[in-house]
């Protein structure tokens, strides 16, 4: 084996976004593109010698090639050991747990989450630190700075590792352990949830459909739901991970998981429907006859947390991303616990979780999780719901309606305008930002603007400040308009418009969501000119 130092030239576009470096596959296929980025990560870390690195991905196209490169670059950079999931696979929450459980220095997670895969689809590389969570901006900034000046990378001249075979292998002098991607994660879930109660639920005839969307949660869901919990075979559909997700779009929302939604609204609906995304960190929760918004799901899980054994002693606090509805705030208020509003992206929850200030976190974009790992966790949310259903012995619909009748209802929707011309999108955001100071105190549609700003977050744990995190226009009655640019899109710009209206517990709790929000949708158009300036008649995706 020889360690080689290969000359390279930098790329100018390796800036990690909301969740790692995400680009179209052909971009990653450029000579040295992967090597430069991974070397830039390692150059930004301290204390590699003698430590363990975790590597795994969601199995999308190019996963196999990148895993082998990452192993060889890790070996040349002095890691003592790499833990890699069999077949190069690990779900994102699975990887987070493995990093924590085996006290690794960090992990390289290969995924573009819910974005489509295949040769013309997306790919992504993300570095997670030793707490199992996405690297904070201090590290991603250092990686980007390094990537702009890098002139060589290190790699061992060794054969590929047989990732199909569990057990100990070598790459150069480095040990490579090929591990079962599911086993440790399944054990962790068993410590958090009442598996006996869940077995009894399924034995009693409870019917569920879990759509793994031909992505990474298939093996996890088969092993846990059908294997450990005895759910009937066929409960998990699309359970084999495919490099192109079967040509589908592995985003568990009402557009891409429409068949599941239709099933749950139909005459022969099972009791419960759920889905997860490309890398297993997002979740979709649908009861018979009712879709549970991710913001409501966060609030409901927090309110019912003590029903699950892992949370029996209560939760320390809740955190939600800024665009997520304030439904969880009402729960925190009632429980008398801390509530935090953070910028979009899971990485902002890491410090709060590490400091023990919050236990449950969530984002409106179908992300829910807790202090058990440092990523959001799709299957965890599904198991939490099952645990709640098993204990309360009520339907999802009854539980949600009871929640609204206690806390009030936060009507909520997100409108996405994808692949918008970047210059138009940026100008639109800039123009709206410029208007903000003049809006405070003004009346619209019978409501008064109580604040209008570009969200800035000051981390209460390390004091770091993250500015320009999205425009918020808040009204005195709890309604909100939020507008921000996506940090994960790979083509043009994606504008996300978030709308929220609060109804008290004795208000109108049964309205249709889009109609309930129509006045706010129109007001957002009036203030931003979004549809007019982008030339779009309607959003591409409504969630
Ligand atoms: C999107 C979601 C955000 C989530 C991220 C990664 O980011 O909005 O909540 O954390 O994907 O899954 P965005 O494209 O909006 O920057
Ligand atoms: Zn994801």
Bound molecules: 1-O-phosphono-alpha-D-glucopyranose, zinc ion
Major sheet size, sense and barrel closure? 7 strands, mixed
User: What is the β-strand count?
Assistant: 27
Low-confidence stretches: none
For this structure, what is the CATH class of the largest domain? Alpha Beta
Determine the strand fraction and express it as a percent band. 25-35%
CATH superfamily of the largest domain: Alpha-D-Glucose-1,6-Bisphosphate, subunit A, domain 3
- Which CATH-level-2 architecture of the largest domain? 3-Layer(aba) Sandwich
Looking at the structure, what is the overall shape? globular
Q: Quote the CATH topology of the largest domain.
A: Alpha-D-Glucose-1,6-Bisphosphate, Chain A, domain 3
What is the alpha-carbon Rg in Å? 23 Å
Overall pLDDT level:
95
Give a structural overview.
By secondary structure, the chain is α/β, with parallel strands linked by helices. The chain folds into 3 domains: about 5-180, 3-Layer(aba) Sandwich (Alpha-D-Glucose-1,6-Bisphosphate, Chain A, domain 3), CATH 3.40.120.10; about 185-405, Alpha-D-Glucose-1,6-Bisphosphate, subunit A, domain 3 (Alpha-D-Glucose-1,6-Bisphosphate, Chain A, domain 3, 3-Layer(aba) Sandwich), CATH 3.40.120; about 410-540, TATA-Binding Protein. Helix content is about 35%, strand content about 25%. The protein contains 17 helices and 27 strands. It has a 7-stranded mixed beta sheet with strand order 2-6-5-3-4-9-8, sandwiched between helices. Helix 10 (about 295-305) packs parallel to helix 11. It is globular. The model has no long low-confidence stretch (mean pLDDT about 95). Bound molecules: 1-O-phosphono-alpha-D-glucopyranose and zinc ion. Zinc ion binds near residues 113 and 282.
């Amino acid at each position: 084996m020889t360690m080689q130092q290969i000359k390279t030239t930098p790329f100018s576009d390796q800036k990690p976004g909301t969740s790692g470096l995400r680009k179209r596959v052909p971009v990653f296929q450029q000579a040295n593109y992967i090597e430069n980025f991974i070397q830039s990560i390692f150059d930004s870390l301290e204390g590699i010698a003698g430590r363990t690195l975790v590597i795994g991905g969601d199995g999308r196209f190019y996963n196999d090639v990148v895993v082998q490169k990452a192993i060889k670059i890790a070996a040349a950079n002095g890691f003592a050991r790499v833990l890699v999931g069999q077949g190069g696979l690990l779900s994102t929450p699975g990887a987070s747990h493995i990093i924590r459980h085996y006290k690794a220095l960090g992990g390289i997670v290969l995924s573009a989450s819910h974005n489509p895969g295949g040769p013309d689809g997306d790919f992504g590389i993300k570095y997670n630190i030793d707490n199992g969570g996405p690297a904070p901006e201090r590290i991603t900034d250092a990686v980007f700075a390094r990537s702009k000046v890098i002139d060589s990378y290190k790699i061992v001249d060794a054969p590929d590792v047989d990732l199909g075979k569990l057990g100990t292998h070598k790459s150069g002098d480095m040990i490579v352990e090929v591990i079962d991607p599911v086993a440790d994660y399944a054990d962790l879930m068993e410590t958090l949830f009442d598996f006996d109660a869940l077995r009894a639920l399924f034995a009693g005839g409870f019917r569920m459909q879990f759509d793994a969307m031909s992505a990474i949660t298939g093996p996890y869901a088969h092993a846990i739901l059908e294997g450990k919990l005895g759910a009937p075979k066929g409960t998990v559909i699309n359970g084999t991970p495919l490099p192109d997700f079967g040509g589908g779009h592995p985003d568990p929302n009402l557009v891409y998981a429409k068949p599941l939604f239709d099933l749950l609204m139909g005459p022969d609906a099972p009791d419960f429907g759920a889905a997860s995304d490309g890398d297993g960190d997002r979740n979709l929760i649908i009861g018979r006859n009712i879709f549970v918004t991710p913001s409501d799901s966060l609030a409901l899980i927090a309110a019912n947390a003590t029903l699950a054994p892992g949370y029996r002693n209560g939760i320390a606090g809740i955190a939600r991303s800024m665009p997520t509805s304030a439904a969880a705030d009402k729960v925190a208020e009632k429980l008398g616990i801390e509530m935090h509003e953070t910028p979009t992206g899971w990485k902002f929850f890491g410090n709060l979780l590490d400091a023990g200030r919050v236990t449950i976190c969530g984002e409106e974009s179908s992300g829910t999780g807790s202090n058990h790992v440092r990523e959001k966790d799709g299957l965890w949310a599904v198991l939490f719901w099952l645990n709640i259903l098993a204990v309360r012995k009520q339907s999802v619909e009854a539980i949600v309606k009871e929640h609204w009748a206690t806390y009030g209802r936060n009507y909520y929707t997100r409108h996405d305008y994808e692949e918008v011309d970047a210059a138009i999108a940026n100008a639109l955001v800039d123009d709206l930002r410029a208007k903000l100071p003049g809006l405070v105190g003004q009346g619209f549609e019978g409501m008064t603007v109580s604040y209008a700003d570009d969200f800035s977050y000051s981390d209460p744990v390390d004091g770091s400040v993250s500015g320009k995190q999205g425009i918020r226009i808040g009204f005195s009655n709890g309604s909100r308009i939020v507008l921000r640019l996506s940090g994960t899109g790979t083509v043009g710009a994606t504008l996300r418009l978030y709308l929220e209206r609060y109804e008290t517990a004795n208000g109108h709790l049964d309205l249709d969501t889009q109609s309930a929000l129509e006045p706010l949708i129109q007001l957002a158009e009036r203030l931003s000119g979004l549809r007019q300036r982008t030339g779009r008649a309607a959003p591409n995706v409504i969630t």
